[in-house]
Protein: aldehyde oxygenase (deformylating)
Amino acid sequence: MTSAPFSSWPWENLGVYKYVLYGPLIAKAFTSKAWEFGNPNKWCLHILILFALRGAVHQLWYTFSNMLFLTRRRRIFTDSVDFDQIDKEWDWDNFLILQCLIGAMSLYTFPALRDLPQWDVWGILLAFFLHVTISEPLFYFVHRAFHRGHLFSLYHSLHHSSKVPQSFTAGFATPLEHLILSVVMGVPLLVPCLVGNGSLGLIYGYVLLFDFLRCMGHSNVEVFPHKLFEALPLLKYFIYTPTYHSVHHMEKNSNFCLFMPLFDLLGGTLDNKTWKLHKEISLGRNDQVPDFVFLAHVLDLVSAMHVQFIFRWHSSMPFAVKPLLLVFWPVAIVIMLCMWAWSKTFLVSMYRLRGRLHQIWAVPRFGFQYFLPFAKDGINHHIELAILRADKMGVKVLSLAALNKNEALNGGGMLFTSKHQDLRVRVVHGNTLTAAVILNEIPKDVQEVFLTGATSKLGRAIALHLCRKKIRVLMLTLSTERFQKIQKEAPPQFQQYLVQVTKIQAAKNCKTWIAGKWLSPREQLWAPPGTHFHQFVIPPIIGFRKDCTYGRLAAMRLPKDVQGLGMCEYTLERGVVHACHAGGVVHLLEGWTHHEVGPIDVDRIDVVWRAALKHGLAPQLHY
Structure:
């Protein structure tokens, strides 16, 4: 079956190599030193700068609309963008390449365009007149035509396949649609230039304003207060709003205008419920209380740029350090300082599971701060405020991420439940499921394991659970008192399976290591060939031994019916979350009413594991 003409991009199969198409312009700009004053080839540089700025407009609108801590109450579609939509819109910037080529061809066709003054007021006024009288009605009638019959099914349906509009959705369309859009944009630009009233200010201003308004309409966040249109009723017919355009994505047969609803009014295609919906959203009445919150934290400056509102292409893939991120280090440092100054928990992502809204909040503290003694009270204060805020909102379960439940910090959350005994929100550290994941990774025929971090919360639970299965546990600890305390918790007939060791050399013949503390390359050398390293340490140990295997951090894959998930959780694969996160999800789905804080209840490890499997969660190891 052949595709319709102009329904796919000629460079569709080039991947990232499509940017080579900018090569001739870049080469000409550099070889001719286009940045020098008075250089006749400066138009090459202007084209490149303009299209870089256009990409920045789309990115900045995306960043703003996905800063959920700022925009959550004014979102139009409450669901988040999922991985399917992200993948479909991956090459959203194809139109920039197309229009860049069109711009270069226009300059060769009309040499007069190469030497324009900086400003011409009459040209700007003429462009505005042409936009209102030609571009707006032309777009309106063509847009309506694309909603009929074969034109919709072959071309425009692709744009409407995006469930949640984003600024990148504005560029997600077929080549034919963007060719027509280029004509719509080109008339107010080309005519003033041909009659001698063109200017660089007109080209930069019109193109960037055009993109700005397109991105605003697709932003999924209402930015106009309803009182503005109540004070100036006629204004609502001369500038569209994100709500206005979103109604078009919902209904498809109304609100066809480019930027001016006046043409929908004249054409009889204006949806009257738009204004009522606009008022509700601008007042924040579209907000929803989440059932579950995962309280995360930032590890470092580089991983901080993995949050959903920075780069969508980056956050939708497992975290990895990329050279491009180093360029944005100065920006990240400024944002870090702003976060410290603002010092409020912020919402970074959300998704739905079984019809319930799950949100990921983040404490504005970096990983190294958790190990500073003087920062302890401040961090606990922010965690406490997040818990109280969730309790006030009506959140049912709040799960604490790794360092937010550190034993030395707040006793695995006990500090908060002891202080606030009337909490309605259930506080969960999720370590029970973390222990279950690690334990179920260990082969059934293992007779002996070596455990570091043996007296930690997780180490204790793992040791007590394994000894009940008559597995010998070599517990690395220098504290005999702490070892004996854990040993006494085991049933008398199983206490013999817990063995204290004080040196790592004691594990030189053991092929199953469970790392609860970071292992240096030198320490890993004591493991015999063929050893498998299980781990529950943050940051994870680095695999230096080629003759050994290394497990990943305890994690589980969410059920397939999860909706709106478009962000990878740190280094984990798509759809996979850390076990402590999954533990909170299970707590919610089971409707358990107890807090899961403090020491792990060893008797509940198998209970939580079976509940997780029952609800469709699966260990990451199975994939």
